[in-house]
Amino acid sequence: MLEKNEVNPIWACRAFPAFPVVLAAVGDGNGNNNVLTIALVHMFSFNPPVLGIGVSPARHSFELMESSDDFSINIPGKDLVEEVLYCGQRSGREVDKFEDCGFVASPGKKIKSPTIAECMVNLECIKRQRIDAGDHIWYLGEVVHAEMAKDADREKSLMYWSGEFRVLGDVIRRR
Amino acid sequence: MVNMDDKVDIDHMGALMSLPPAPVVLVGVGGKEINVITVGMFNVFSVRPPIVGIAVTTSRQSYKFLEENDEFTINIPGKELLEQVIICGEKSGADTDKFELTGLTPVKGKRTKAPRIAECLLNMELKKTQSFEIGDHTWYLGEIKHTDITSDYDRSKALLYRDGEYWTAGERPIKKRE
User: Fold this and answer.
1) In chain B, which end has fewer C-beta atoms inside a 10 angstrom radius, N or C?
2) Whole-model pTM?
3) Where are the domains of chain A?
4) A46:B22 CB<8 A
């Protein structure tokens, strides 16, 4: 189990990798949980810290996302690349992704949805706005609680774009 | 330096797939009066229809331009435009002509009135679909109407920005989905 510290949500958002792929977890607090791989995720506001995820209405988790007041965004390290792929390609209709991936669903500290223990960063989000923007519904959630592995490092997080999993390249200049 | 003669037009899906991860973009706004701003908040919202969005803080001069016009452009700079990108982020259009100051060339859009930036690798023309406020930012979403891209475009050369750091994507992906 990763050793984690509670961190300020505003500060935690800085751990959010550029063009990430994340695991979102949503649940009703009664053990009805699902995890989904999300590449459509972005920061929407710095203060208050608001993150948003885009979910296609065709996905199994859509109903849970619609009815839940909250969700968690979990940032996987590159060691979880196979699990991330699995959670993106399989549906919660057919498989239990927590069980198949060996993920531990930790109870949220401030939300009903679980967080994923194996991820480097866990961001607990309460839904603030819902945006219908075409073929995805976006859920914007304020980060109300955040935990981060003691050795979490953006360099270790996965990046994803059109079929390619990457890690961060070179910094060419600092402000 | 890149100019419009180096470019070809591509379809909307090709345009979406050409966007680099975490780009810093130059946004062209206005009609008669024009301005260019550096924006670090960019997101793809929908694939079909192709909708992307940018966010600005409300204190910026171009907020007015984005409110008053229903069109804008998103332009992806290469890393050779780093200094121009910094200037367009730090100076205000209220007291500076940023095109004159940076030497960036505004070019009329093919399907919109908003200015495109000739020196950028990719020029995307958008029609505003909606805007909303959340926290400290106002988001403007637009549907892609036209995109021009350099014929030797490589998105791993695009300038990226995150949390005070400019960088480019790693040379090689660590894994490709089969």
Assistant:
1) C
2) 0.83
3) 4-157
4) no
